[in-house]
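Shall we go through a protein fold together, starting from nothing but its sequence? Label the sequence line and the structure token line clearly, so we can match residues to local backbone shapes. Would you write everything just below, so we can both look at the same thing?
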Amino acid sequence: MMTREVHHCLVTDNLERVAQLLWEHDVGALPVFADFGRMVAMVTDRDVCMAAYIMGRPLREIPVTTAASKHVYHVQPTDSIESVLTVMKMQRVRRVPVIDVGEHLEGIITIADIVRNVSGSLDRSDPLHPEHVAQALVEILRHHDFSRHPSRKPATAACAISG
């Protein structure tokens, strides 16, 4: 079910290069690779937009490391689809990298991959039963609770990798 051909960017790239790769490959996120092909972060199209807005600088002047999410929620190739959906729901992420025990990226599972594989089964224990997938989508895509995050002026908002 996962997408195996995954395009990526490098920690040395700027957001102009990231935007170019997102556009050319028609994707909404890219893994960020460091030395020896090790995945260290993810960057989304929204990360690029928010960094440009908050920093008020051209994309070519903003390093990918400024906008990328350093904490990457992932699954292993042997994990079940239930595990993938649990990670997506709990972390409210739309894409989950599949990383093997050697820390190599094997692919990415997206909510689009899951929706394309919804089963026609009447068996409600099937994790890809339409009802289960719909419930998962509701949780993954729910609005942020902004009352928990006081709004900040763009000039003071942080847009950096958290450690």
Q: What stands out?
A: Residues 149-163 have pLDDT under 50 and may be disordered. The longest helix spans residues 15-25.
